[in-house]
C-alpha cells in the first residue's frame, strides 16, 4: 500500500490518521460492523487515533450479541453482511432503539438508503468514503444525541392532535403513541417549533441531521414521507406537512 494513503472500499483515499495522544480521554465507544476485515482494521486504527474506542465485528448476529452484552454510544452498520444482514439487525433492534445508527451503503443505491432510514438508521454514508467524513458524521450524530439527553427542562410541544415531549422522546397523535426514529423525531420537532413557517431542506439537514445538504441527498424527503405515513397526515387534511416548492417544508394547522 502506498505510504500516506488509506484504502476505503477498493480505492485509495489520501487521508492520514492524526497522531494519537495516549493521554486524551476516549470520546465514545463505537461498534463497527462490516464483513471487510481489512477495512475494519484500517478504520479502527483511524478512529482510535481520533480518540474513539472501537470494537469491530463482521456479521449482524455478532453485532446483536455485542449490543446485548455491552454499551456503545454509536453503531456503524454496513448493509451487506453475511448471515444476518444490516437490515435484519435494524429490524431486530426496532425503530425506537435509542443508540444512534450510521448505515454504510453502496454509492448510488437509493433503495438501501431509504430502507435503512425507514427502519431506524439516523444517517447514512455511501462507500467509498474518506475516513475524515466518517469521523465528522460520527461527531455530528453524537452531538445531537448529547444535546438531546442534556436538556434540563423538557419541552412539551403541541400542534393540533400531535404532541411531542423532548424529555421522554415520545410522540402522540390524538393520545395514541407513535414510534419514531431519532432522525424522524428531530425533523418533527423542527417542524413543530416553527409550525406555519417554511423550513428549507438545507436548514433541516443541518439542524436535524447535523451536516450540510449535498447534491442528490434525499434524506429529509424520506424522513418527511415517513412522518406523513406514521402520523397519518393526509394531503389536504388538517394538520399537514406541506412541500413548498423551491423553499422547503412547513407544518400547517388551521384551528377549527
Q: Would you identify the regions where 5 or more consecutive residues have pLDDT less than 50?
A: 1-12
Q: What count of helical segments does DSSP give? A: 8
Named CATH architecture of the largest domain:
3-Layer(aba) Sandwich
Radius of gyration from the alpha-carbon trace, in angstroms: 19 Å
The oligomeric status of these chains comes to: single chain
Strand content: 15-25%
The major beta sheet can be summarized as:
5 strands, parallel
Q: Please identify the top-level CATH class of the largest domain.
A: Alpha Beta
- Average residue pLDDT: 84
The overall strand count is: 13
CATH topology of the largest domain: Rossmann fold
Assign an overall shape: globular
Helix and strand composition category: alpha/beta
- What is the total domain count? 2
- Secondary-structure element pattern, one letter each: EEEHEHEHEHEHEEEEHHHEE
Strand arrangement, largest sheet? 4-3-5-6-7
Distance between the termini: 68 Å
The CATH superfamily name of the largest domain is: Response regulator
Helix residue percentage:
25-40%
Characterize this entry briefly.
Helices cover 36% and strands 21% of the residues.
Description:
By secondary structure, this protein is an alpha/beta fold. The protein has 2 domains: 6-149, Response regulator (Rossmann fold); 156-252, Winged helix-like DNA-binding domain superfamily/Winged helix DNA-binding domain (Arc Repressor Mutant, subunit A). It is 36% helix and 21% strand. The chain has helices spanning 37-49, 60-69, 86-93, 110-118, 131-149, 182-193, 201-209, 219-230; strands at 6-7, 12-13, 29-33, 53-57, 74-78, 101-106, 123-127, 156-159, 162-165, 170-173, 176-177, 240-244, 248-252. Strands 4-3-5-6-7 form a 5-stranded parallel sheet, sandwiched between helices. β10 and β11 (176-177) form a beta hairpin. α6 crosses α7 (201-209). The longest helix is centred in the middle third of the chain and has 19 residues, at 131-149. The radius of gyration is 19 Å and the shape is globular. It starts with 5 loop residues before the first strand and ends with a strand. The relative contact order is 0.10. The model is unreliable at 1-12 (pLDDT under 50).
Amino acid at each position: 500500500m502506498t505510504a500516506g494513503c488509506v484504502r476505503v472500499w477498493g480505492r485509495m483515499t489520501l487521508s492520514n490518521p492524526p497522531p494519537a495522544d495516549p493521554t486524551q480521554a476516549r470520546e465514545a465507544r463505537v461498534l463497527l460492523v462490516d464483513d471487510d476485515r481489512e477495512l475494519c482494521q484500517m478504520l479502527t486504527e483511524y478512529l482510535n487515533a481520533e480518540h474513539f474506542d472501537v470494537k469491530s465485528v463482521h456479521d449482524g448476529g455478532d453485532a446483536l450479541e455485542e449490543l446485548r452484552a455491552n454499551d456503545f454510544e454509536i453503531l456503524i452498520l454496513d448493509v451487506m453482511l453475511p448471515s444476518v444482514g444490516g437490515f435484519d439487525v435494524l429490524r431486530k433492534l426496532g425503530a425506537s432503539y435509542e443508540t444512534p445508527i450510521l448505515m454504510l451503503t453502496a454509492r448510488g443505491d437509493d433503495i438501501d438508503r431509504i430502507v435503512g432510514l425507514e427502519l431506524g438508521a439516523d444517517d447514512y454514508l455511501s462507500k467509498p468514503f474518506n475516513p475524515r467524513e466518517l469521523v465528522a458524521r460520527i461527531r455530528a450524530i453524537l452531538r445531537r444525541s448529547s444535546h438531546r439527553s442534556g436538556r434540563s427542562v423538557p419541552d412539551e410541544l403541541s400542534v393540533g392532535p400531535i404532541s411531542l415531549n423532548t424529555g421522554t422522546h415520545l410522540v402522540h397523535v390524538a393520545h395514541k403513541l407513535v414510534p419514531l426514529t431519532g432522525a424522524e423525531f428531530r425533523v418533527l420537532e423542527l417542524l413543530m417549533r416553527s409550525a406555519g413557517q417554511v423550513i428549507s431542506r438545507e436548514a433541516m439537514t443541518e439542524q436535524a441531521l447535523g451536516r450540510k445538504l449535498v447534491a442528490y441527498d434525499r434524506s429529509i424527503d424520506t424522513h418527511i414521507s415517513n412522518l406523513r405515513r406514521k402520523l397519518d397526515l393526509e394531503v389536504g387534511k388538517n394538520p399537514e406537512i406541506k412541500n413548498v416548492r423551491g423553499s422547503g417544508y412547513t407544518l400547517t394547522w388551521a384551528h377549527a
